[in-house]
Structure formats: structure tokens, C-alpha cells
Amino acid sequence: MTTSFKPVSVAIGDLVSHPANVRSNSPETYDPENIAHLKASIAVLGLLQPLMVQKLDGKYAVLAGGRRHAALKELVADRAAKGFTAKAKIDCRLVPEDCDVTTALSLAENITQAPMNAIDEFEAFARMMEVDDQTPETIAKTFGTTVAAVKGRLRYGLIHPDIRAAARAKTITLDTMKAFAEHPSQEVQREVFEALTKEDSYLQAYTVRQALKSRGVQVSDDIGAFVRADYEARGGAVAADLLEEHSVLEDAALVETILLEKLGAAAEEARIKLGFAWADAMVRYDYATMADYGRVYPGPIEPDEAAQKRIDEITAELEKLQLEMEDEGLEDGAYNALYERVDALEEEARDLQEAYSAEDLARSGVIASWSGGQVTLHVGLVRPEDTVKKEGARGSSASPTGEEAPDAGEITYPASLAEDLKTERAMALGAAMALHPEATLDLTLFKLVSDVLASGMSVTQAIKIDARKEYRSHAKMDEIDATSLEQVAAAHEALDLSWLDDTRAPADQFAAFRALEAGEKAKLVAYATASTTQSCFARDRQRDSLMHAFEIEIMPDIRAHWTPNAALFNRFKKAWLLKILGEDLGLAQEAVTLASSSKKEIVAFCDKLFAEPFATLTDAQRAAVAAWCPPMMQTAGVACDEAEPAAETPEPDGDIAQAA
Questions:
Q1: Measured distance CA(432)–CA(553) in Å, rounded
Q2: Is the pLDDT of residue 377 over 70?
Q3: Which is it for strands 238-239 and 278-281: parallel, antiparallel or unpaired?
Q4: Could you count the other beta carbons within 10 Å of the beta carbon of residue 284?
Q5: Does residue 132 carry a pLDDT above 80?
Q6: How far apart are CA 276 and CA 360, in angstroms?
């Protein structure tokens, strides 16, 4: 039996809440922010559906329509809303007082009104604009939402009808249908839809987006934004979207042509500035394609008086910036700004202290590519046909990747970082010496006896037998890897120091020392000698062959005593970190992905990678991560002329053996 309810007009002020309304225990339902769109709709269109009311204590209690009632009260309180007062009457349906289905009525209205199908909603918005001459602005006002939200729904409502029909029939998912909105042209959408459905009966949103990329470039894409002005100046077609950022530059070939032209211009500008022989451009830098190319690096030069003055100014400013960057309260934006300033200053300092040789400039060039939303320059590249093996040639490091010459020159280390790395290397060497007491004892005794008995210069300058610890300075001593410190501390714990009693006379101490076993004496001498080794990088086989051979014996791999961490990576340029990941570690895809990340994020990635190599690494990548260190720190690294002050970029020196 169907119950009919009598129509009645009721003043808004005579309406009250009904205790049987199923939403009466959910007051948040009626919060102003939750009914804003309903208030806006009623203000423009009026009350489209009557309220269900029941007489209670002389008032009309709202049984169904509580949210509309709340919206009406908001309009009465809003002085800007015209025509809505407490005395204004609205249409209602009166439920008899003896009706026993009160709660059922309220529940039925709240659950039987199924939410509108998403596609219906999209199409309804589209019809309002196409048929009723509505605008996104008027639709937004009607529904109490934002213009951007309306435009988002409109975009889906304007997808090609065949695609919407497929979504209704559940042939494709709603997400797949939405993916077609990536291109505003319905004709392009239809063509892609037909092509993909011929190839595969099941479409995925990802496949659709990838296919649409070949049909144009969105203006919000980094490449689209980069070329748009030139593209439109040449009459390139633009498919306009309701949301400007989704408009598409339809001629993909023209986009690529303009991009390559702009990259070529950037490469040519760098070629002229640096004096290279050639310039080229490629949209994406392909590490595999470039594997056969060599590379040359600038060598150190003596700065003139003006240059030296500027270098001193830069050094002072860098020290100040380093202190500012240690402030843990810095916001990311300020932190990154300081990084950029440091990078710029270090680059300027390098330019003042290094230059390419005329021979290298005559056969090398620069390639510009697009990476991370900007032009990236790859300088000093040598084409395979121009690569010449230079036996013993100092200052030239051209070589195919992974062959012939080591890649020590790839990164030009600032003087301050180079000095600190010397300290870290000396600490690692000290740990190795403490862990090899017998060999170090022999070295110490040989050094002492040879210096006294042999004629001429000392057999090695690396060890100072003067009973004083070597002073080791470092800008961030508390942040460096602690492996060598822990190893030396463990060696110290194992020492027999029973003879070293300050209450004894020196003669008594000496007697106790003489009574120690030979192995214990060796540990003590090794520990003392380890504490007196000098900080340096490589050993010249001719001038310090003793330490060259000794280091290879006791420290064939510095990574046994030292691990790169954030303290090191923080002092590298972002481009260096990406180069290390892509070229040295074989993580080319990760380097491409991280190119758009901040330097801080890349540093965190590298720190985590070296602390515990990821399980997803290949065997080759894992081996590369386990072995990597700044080239001049490794025993099998690059020789360095210790007579030169703080070499910025150690370079190979003919057939001189390489040391850490």
C-alpha cells in the first residue's frame, strides 16, 4: 500500500530537526563546509525537492532533508542571499503524526538516492555548458565548488562519445577513459582508441597516455613550456583544453625540431666560450650510445694576481656559507639556495685555476641534451674516431669510457675538499697499519735505520719518526665515515699498556716495555707509526716507492676502512652525483629519474645506497658500489705529484704506478 503525503508550505523559521532523522547523530553532516555546494545550488536554482516534515509540538520537524534544512538556515543567516528569510515559505510534504514508518522514510531517502554515475555527472556538466550556454564559472557558482573542479569534470564529459560508451559498457575502466582527456582533440582520442583496441582488447590507462604522447606535447610539460613561444611563432597547431595546462602542441615533429635547435644553440654557445672544436645536440643523453666516446678534462694552471685575489674571496665566502649550511633549522628552500650558491662559487674558482690544453680543445666538443627540465651540457667529449691513446701524456685524459686512462679528472675537486679527503685517506691508512703490526714494525725499523745509515735523502717522507702525532684537520670531522676510527680504537683496546704507568720512572717503564712479547711490541710500534703518517693521496714510485709498495700490500682497497657518506656527497655538485650514479655505478635509469629531484634528495639516495647496497642491484652494480671512492683515494688510483700544493685534479703521469 502506497502512502501519500499532503503538500504543505512551511515558513523556514517554523522548521526544526526531527529526532528520528537517521543523520541526527552525525552533526558533522550539517557543518557549513559540508553543505556549501548545496547552499549555493538552492540560492541559484531554489529548492528542487520538498522536505519531508511531521508536526511535533506545534513545529514542523524535518524527517527527511536535514541537509537542505541546514542550507536554508545558512541562507537565512546570510544577508547577501536575497529572498531567504525566516518567514519565507518552502514546499514540504506532511507525514501524518500517527505514521509508523518515520525512521524508514528518513532512511529510505538517504540510501535509495544512489550517487550519480561518474560518467553521468561528467556529461551533465558538459550539457550545461553546450546546451544551456553555462560557463565553468556559472556552473561552479551553482554547485558551490571551484572553477578548476568544474573544468576537471567537463574535460571528462567532453571525451569522445565512443570512448564514454565503452566506459559505460565496462569495456574499459573509468581510469582508462579519463586517460584519453590527456589530449583535448576528440578526433585524436578516437584514432588512438581505435588503434589500441585493434592491438589489444584490454586497455590500460598507462598505455593510452603513452600513445597520446606521440600525438603532441602538453604545454605544461617541461619541453612544451620550453619551446612553446617558438612553436606558436612558427604557426604550430595548439589543441586548446578547458584547463590551459592540458592544452597540447599537436605537431610533435615541430616540437622536437625546435628543441634540437635550442639545444644546438646552447651547445654552440658553450663551444665558442670554451674553445671546443665541435658542438652537437640530442634530446636525451644515452649513456649506452656515448659509451665509445672519450673525454678530456681541464688541467691546473697558475692563476694571475687578479685571479688569485678572486679565488681568496671565493674561499672566504665558501667558508661562511658552509657554516650557514650547518644550521639544522634551515628550510629546504634556503638550504637548496645555499647549495646553488656554493656550486656557483666552486665552479667559478675551478675556472680560474684550470684550463683545457690546446691539443684537447682541437679534438673535443660539447653535446647539449634535455634532462630534468633543463638544458644539460656534456663537455670535453671526444668522438671515437678522434680518440688517441696518449702514453705518458700529462694533462690529457681522453679515453673511451672504462678504458685506458682512469676517470680521476671527471670531477674537479675543490681544494678544501681535496685536503679533507687527504685527511680521511690518512686515517684509513693508519687503520690499515694498526691492523698489520708486523709489517708496520718492519717498515718503522727500516725507516729509522736507513735514515741514519744510508747516504742521501730519506727513504720516505711519509713517516715522521719524531714521536709526535700527525695533526689532521678536517672541515667536518664529526660527519665523516667512522670505520677507520673504530678500527684504530679497536687496535688501541688490544694494546698491552701495562708498562705505561705514569707513577713509574722512565727507566722502569722501559724495563717493562722490554719484557713484552715481540708481538705486543709490534702492535705498539704499528699504532705509533700509524699516528705519524702524513696526509696525502698518491705515491710517486720514483720519489716514494717504499710507501707506494707498502700501501698496496696493507691497503689494497680503501673501502675496507672507509665508506662514502652524506658528508662527502653534500660537497659534490648535483651533476657530479648524477654522473657517478649513471657512469661509475651503472645506475643510468636511477640517474635519469633523480635528475628532477633536489640535491638534498639525491644526497640521501646516495648515502642510503652506500650504507647498504639495495637488494635490487645487479651483481655488476653491487660490485661498483662496493668499490667506488674518489679515484685519487684508492691504492689503484691516480698518481699525484706531492710537490704540488693541493692538486685539484690528480692526473695520470705516464707509467708511474697509481696509488690511493
A1: 10
A2: yes
A3: unpaired
A4: 10
A5: no
A6: 8
3-state secondary structure at position 306: helix
Measured CA to CA, the distance from residue 568 to residue 413 in angstroms comes to 11
pLDDT tens for 176-229 read 988 898 888 889 989 999 888 886 666 888 888 888 888 888 888 889 999 999
The answer to whether 157 and 134 have CB atoms below 8 angstroms apart is no
- 239 DSSP β-pair partners: 248
Contact call for residues 424 and 562 (beta carbons, < 8 A): yes
Q: Which residues contact 131 (CB under 8 A, 6 or more apart)?
A: none
- Using CA atoms, how far apart are residues 160 and 181, in angstroms rounded to an integer? 9
Pick from 357, 350, 267, 253: nearest CA to 307: 350
Burial 329-361 (b: 16+ CB within 10 A, else e): eeeeeebeebbeebbebbeebbebbbbbeeebb
Instruction: Say which residues have a Cβ less than 8 Å from residue 380's Cβ, sequence separation at least 6.
Output: 276, 295, 296, 297, 298, 356, 360, 364, 366
Question: What digits encode the pLDDT tens for the residues 511-565?
Answer: 887 888 888 888 888 887 777 776 666 565 556 677 778 888 888 888 888 999 9
pLDDT for res 232: 92
421-458 in b/e form (b: 16+ CB < 10 A) is bbbbbbbbbbbbbbbbbebbbebbeebeeeeeeeeeee
Q: How deeply is 405 buried, as exposed, middle or buried, from its count of CB atoms within 10 A (0-12, 13-18, 19+)?
A: buried
State the average pLDDT over residues 454-461.
56
Q: Domains plus CATH for the chain?
A: 6-112 (3.90.1530.30), 260-382 (no CATH), 415-452+474-560 (no CATH), 566-633 (no CATH)
| DSSP string over 579-648 | HIIIIISS-HHHHHHHTTS-HHHHHHHHHHHHHS--TT--HHHHHHHHH---GGGSTTS----TTSSS-S
399-413, 429-443, 486-500, 567-581, range with the lowest pLDDT: 399-413
Residue scoring higher pLDDT (564 or 635)? 564
Which residue in 87, 84, 94, 109 sits closest to 60, CA to CA?
A: 94
Task: Give per-residue pLDDT as tens, 558-611.
Answer: 888 899 998 889 888 888 898 899 888 999 888 888 888 888 889 999 999 999
* Residue 583, φ and ψ in degrees, nearest 5: -100, -45
Q: Which three cell numbers stand for residue 72?
A: 536554508
pLDDT of residue 236: 92
Q: Which three three-digit cell numbers place residue 65?
A: 532533508
CB-based contact 255:225 (threshold 8 Å): no
Strand partners, 90: 10
Residue 451, H or E segment? helix 437-453
Q: Which residues of 100-139 are buried (b: 16+ CB within 10 A; e: fewer)?
A: eebeebbbebbeeeeeeeebeebbebbebbeeeebebebb
- Fill in the DSSP letter of residue 397: -
Contact between 363 and 381 under an 8 Å Cβ cutoff? The reply is: no
Alpha helices by DSSP H, 275-331: 305-325
Q: Can you tell me whether residue 101 is helix, strand or coil?
A: coil
Instruction: State residue 234's pLDDT score.
Output: 93
Q: What are the distances in angstroms from CA 592 to CA 52, 221, 227, 601?
A: 62, 16, 21, 14
- In 3-state terms, what secondary structure has residue 380? strand
Of residues 265, 249, 178, 257, the one with CA closest to residue 217 = 249
Is the full-model pTM beyond 0.70? no
Q: What is the mean pLDDT of residues 498-506?
A: 77
